[in-house]
Amino acid sequence: MGQSTRRKVWFQYWDSRITFERSYLARLNYVHYNPVKHGVTANATNYPWCSAAWFDQNAPTSFVKTVKSFKTDKLKVPDDF
User: Fold this and answer.
1) What DSSP string describes the chain?
2) Does residue 79 form part of some domain?
3) How many domains are there within the chain?
4) Is 14 part of any domain?
5) What's the domain range around 30?
């Protein structure tokens, strides 16, 4: 088996307790569009390891619109990958 020196899996993992609904919704939007932010894909719903397509197809339309309306630029989420 070959080694990969570039790939980081569960490196510096942490979790936190989200206590505000608005913070949860903003982070959910952030997670869905993380592959776009990092230039992996132009559309998160086309990325097979992302839940964005499932979310768009299965969640109520009003909830999808609500989540997508939350800005993610002010989230303080360490993300240097």
Assistant:
1) ----SS--SSTT--------HHHHHHHHHHHHTHHHHTTS-S-GGG-TT-SHHHHHHHS-HHHHHHHHTS--TT-------
2) no
3) 1
4) no
5) 21-67
pLDDT of 21 reads 87
Helix axes 21-32, 61-68, angle to 10 degrees: 90
Computed over every residue of the chain, the mean pLDDT equals 82
Distance CA 41, CA 49 (A): 11
12-44: pLDDT as tens digits = 666 777 778 888 899 899 899 889 988 999 999
